[in-house]
Amino acid sequence: MDLNALGWSDFFAEPFEPHAARGLVPARVAIAFNRFFRVYTEQGELTVVSSGRLLHHAASRAELPTAGDWVAVRVRSDGGGAIQAVLPRKSQFTRKMAGRVVEQQVVAANVDTVFLVSGLDDEFNTRRIERYLIMTWESGAQPVVILNKTDLVDDAPELVREVEAIAAGVPVHAISSKLDEGMEIVRRYLRPGQTIALLGSSGVGKTTITNRLLGEDRFATAEVRVADSRGRHTTTNRQLVLLPQGGLLLDTPGMREIQLWDADGGAEQNFADIDDIVALCHFGDCRHGSEPGCAVRLAIDEGRLDPARFEGYLKIQEELDRFADQQTLHGQLEAKRRVKVITRAVEQLQRSR
Fold first, then answer.
1. C-alpha distance from residue 90 to each of 34, 109, 351 (Å)
2. What is the DSSP letter of 259?
3. pLDDT (0 to 100) of residue 227
4. Contact criterion met (CB below 8 Å) for 127 and 140
5. What is the β-pairing status of strands 44-50 and 25-33?
6. In Å, how far are 2, 151, 198, 217, 230 from 225, measured between CA atoms?
7. Crossing angle between the packed helical segments 156-164 and 126-139, to the nearest 10 degrees
8. In whole angstroms, what is the distance from residue 271 CA to residue 82 CA?
9. Do 29 and 6 meet the contact criterion of CB atoms below 8 Å apart?
10. pTM score of the predicted model
11. Distances (CA, A) of 27 to 3, 109, 111, 153, 249
12. How far apart are CA 180 and CA 205, in angstroms?
């Protein structure tokens, strides 16, 4: 395999030099199964594991290999190997892990373009699309919104305009992957060495799009429930596949819970227009209610600002503030835990003397 076709660049070559001096080889993670990984190398595909040293020194699960990562591998004579290090990431799509755990989950790494796929059936939700946009801007990748299932609606152009109004110049394309309509637009983004990730809820058609781009039904699909357009998880692991026309595609399982992780920059970029309006308010601590000189209320009254979008903006800001508080509390508790561990170790040492 050619490394450049896999997405290799000078960005990864420089930090890899110390590993090359140790006889390690560069590899790109195609799929991860706990400690086992399928990777692409110049020698072909290999199945490798994480080295004990890598697991021991990782400060969190976010530092462990995930699909799309470039890693340094020590290859054994039997064709297996072990990942010794994860190279710096050019981009990473992250979210807060589901539930109450305050921990970062890396969904995809080293992605150039993110296809944010939304169905035009009952699953269509502009607020959810906004959240995906924020996460993508924060990742460092370029977002493209794909509105799938035009065969199920009569007002696709109107829905495209609705998304364009919240997407701040992001390309928005309406397609029907089932009927193979509009896929030629999607194929224009595919270039050798470029990595595209498909993100969206279950049942929006990500796997069907993948199969169309591969030119074969390689991955299983399932029909959504008619009652609520909810889909089943036919994709269970993030998997990086090589496309016949060049480029790489990373299909991901559907995400039903999208909790933002440290996404201030992404929110600022996505809501720049609203921030500009807020800055015009007469009072710096304006609550955008009945205060005199409120630029937000004026923009809503004049039809320049969608009240539903502003409500979404407020919810995002509240969530990010709450996340910051959780991180602070988590850090304090972790610091107390470390002090207890050190204190206990010192006491045991003193007793043993």
1. 23, 8, 50
2. B
3. 46
4. no
5. unpaired
6. 42, 17, 21, 21, 5
7. 50
8. 43
9. no
10. 0.75
11. 8, 13, 15, 43, 16
12. 12
Query: Using CA atoms, how far apart are residues 61 and 39, in angstroms rounded to an integer?
Result: 19
How confident is the model at residue 253, as a pLDDT? 72
Q: What φ, ψ does residue 226 adopt, rounded to 5°? A: -65, -35
What parts of the chain have a pLDDT lower than 50? Answer: 225-235, 256
72-77 long-range Cβ contacts below 8 angstroms, 24+ apart: 72/16, 72/19, 72/24, 72/25, 72/26, 72/27, 73/24, 73/25, 73/26, 73/27, 73/39, 73/41, 73/46, 73/48, 74/22, 74/23, 74/24, 74/25, 75/25, 75/41, 75/43, 75/46
* DSSP strands (E only) in the chain: 25-33, 36-41, 44-50, 70-75, 81-86, 92-96, 104-109, 113-119, 142-148, 172-174, 195-199, 239-242, 248-251
Q: Which of 270, 269, 314 is nearest to 288 (CA)?
A: 314
Of 179, 182, 159, 163, give the one whose Cα is nearest residue 171.
Answer: 163
The neighbour count for residue 267, using CB atoms within 10 Å, is 24
pLDDT at residue 10 in the model = 95
Query: Other C-beta atoms within 10 Å of 113: how many?
Result: 19
Residue tagged 């269970």 (tokens): 236
Among residues of the chain, what percentage have pLDDT more than 70? 80
The per-residue pLDDT for 201 is 86
pLDDT at 78: 87
Residue with tokens 């029909």, as numbered in its chain: 223
Q: Residue 265 is inside which H or E element, if any?
A: helix 264-270
What Cα–Cα distance (Å) separates residue 162 from each residue in 5, 89, 90, 125, 277?
37, 33, 31, 10, 20
Tell me: the pLDDT tens digits for 1-40?
Answer: 899 999 999 999 999 999 999 999 999 999 998 779 999 9
The pLDDT assigned to 203 comes to 87
CA-closest candidate to residue 313, choices 351, 268, 350 = 268
